[in-house]
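Notebook, bench 3.
Goal today: get a predicted structure for STAS domain-containing protein from Trametes pubescens so we can plan the truncation constructs. The sequence was checked against the plasmid map this morning, with no discrepancies at the termini. Length recorded as 754 residues. Pasting the sequence as submitted so the record is complete.
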Amino acid sequence: MVSLVEKAKSFGKRVIGQPEQPVPVVSIKDWASSVTSSPSRGALRYVESLFPIVGWITRYNLGWLYGDVVAGLTVGIVVVPQSMSYAQIATLPTQYGLYSAFVGVLIYCLFATSKDVSIGPVAVMSLTVSRIIATVNESHPDQWPGHQIATTVAFICGFIVLGIGLLRLGWLVEFIPAPAVSGFMTGSAINIVAGQVPGLLGETGFDTRASTYKVIINCLKFLPVTKMDAAFGITGLFSLYAIRIICDQLAKRYPRRQRLFFFISVFRNAFVIVVLTIASWLYCRHRKTASGKYPIKILQTVPRGFQHVGPPVIDPELVAAMAGELPVATIILLLEHIAISKSFGRLNGYKINPNQELIAIGVTNAIGTVFGAYPATGSFSRSALKSKSGVRTPAAGILTSVVVIVALYGLTPAFFWIPSAGLSAVVIHAVADLVASPRQVFAFWRVSPLEFIIWLAAVLVTVFTTIENGIYTSICASLALLLVRIAHPRGYFLGRVTLHAEKSAVREVFVPLTPRPGVLHPAVRVEPPPPGVIVYRFEESALYPNISLLNDALVDHVKTNMRRGRDMSKVSMSDRPWNDPGPRPGHDENADNLEKPVLHAIVLDFSGVSHVDTTAVQALIDTRNEVERWADKHVEFHFATILSPWIRRALVAGGFGTGAPSSSLPAEIAPVVPYRGGRRTLPEKNKASDIEAVEEITEDPETEGPIVPQDTPFFHFDLISAVHAAERGLSTQDRSAQSSLRKKPSLSQTDVSD
């Protein structure tokens, strides 16, 4: 019975091509055991991670309380006028901005991993909501009110983002680089500022949600008919900037009073709105027309408290009508928040959990629809204010929500007289800071000119078309650049530089043979490898889009610089391959060939390779076959710095690393269309010498010992060891060649016809 089982196993191994004594490699069982070592503990950690507040609320103390109270109240004073202003951008009544602000700051603190971020209405998301409302109304005129459309967007996008967070897919956000985000934000800020200028000047009569350049042109056309609102708007905007500039200068002049001037600057939004509201009341209270209009545009009645608490009304027909707009709304919702939270995490020395942040804003928006809120995400200006105010924990959001509640239930009568131009001034002042500074733009150019082009494209497309086109342009351009970089990685043929340090210490390093401007000193002399040895570094994972570059580089280099194994001068044109043009007229093909060194070994530096796929292994096999066919002999392939057991497993499957002669290995590891007619073999005269040479090398006493497994002697711990092993093999080959010459009468008697 046992013998039958063994025979069955042996037969199965022969069918799938597994060696009888395979080289030990990492297995699926090893991976599965590392993943499922403690499933219950992993599930418990997952549940605990959903509520980060549990990790710090038990350690809360009075020292933290002071910072949270100050930051919470400070942000609350700012968020009230800002949220009402942003609601106007979204073409919603102002109270909906307060609803979003309350839910955002209250719910977020329960799930947050960032102490600085303030959730609520933001300009870019508000503009996106206004465009969605306009789009739906164009296709379905007056079928749904604007606030229902806005809350539906919040509900759907909230659950989408929540699902992304729960499934731990937050890494998808990493595919959008910082320049693309900055370009999109800059273009959006310019778009919003242009859209608010008419409100600042009291201009009406044209679409402020058209392309930015059209809004700017229309603003210039309507300047002669500017209304009285401009007096309030321009005065408010000038005051906001004047207070900030004066406070900044005084803080530099009197460093001891820096914190005092900071809070004076913080309260400028509330101060300007209060002054403009009083001025509006004094100017408008006796100038109401018979039709009920006032000389300037004011908010008028703002409903007190929460007027729309209840389950959200989700109409499937409405969801279908806005389906095409939901992707960009979801991207903005998560992209802006993750970018802001990461930025403040870096500034203040902590790391956020992107997946948990997505859960936080997903839950915030889903619950916010119960209160009638529209989509909320992280605000850059309020987060910066919260950070500078000395916030200690996310609990500061509770104090901010208290301020919003007080405004909703106690200050709505005063909101009646707030001039709309004053709110436009607040929006312009807040959003203008999102425009990238010249220093930041120049930094993009210095680091990566290609990413600067992406930034510029995002800005221009956003300004001249729409925000949706801008964000899609930045994302698609970034992904295209990523694919190009993966498909066209850098690779270098390396040479040696010997460094002489103090006390006669000598160290070898390998650098590109071709001079790289700014990398090496011009006086440094790079010594090429010994004749017959090639050292090549591939600076990307070896994957199917790029592995052909490695094959082309090595094969072309071998055919150009290494000796051909056969004397082609004795081969007639009729016996040459169809793609061999033959020698040039009057040119001694064999003489030039004999001047080149005999190829012995190729050393591949895999320190920059983190993954290898099946196509890559097949391409390496093809490379080995092509160079051995050119050299007409066995060629050693050494690999340096393989730190992944899965790369080692893949290369061993391709017949690399063990030192086995290539004549015993298949020419294909995973053929698309299997060819069952035969296999590639080397000439018989080379087989014995190949095996003999391999045996001599593997028995070298100076191998790396226990650092690298003995069953894969052609895998090396570092590049220096790999090159030294190739050099030892080269010297062994030279000794064998000299011994063969002593035995043979002359080279002319050597058979070169096969």
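The first strand starts at residue 118 and ends at 120. Confidence is low (pLDDT under 50) at residues 678-704, 741-754.
Flagging this for group meeting.
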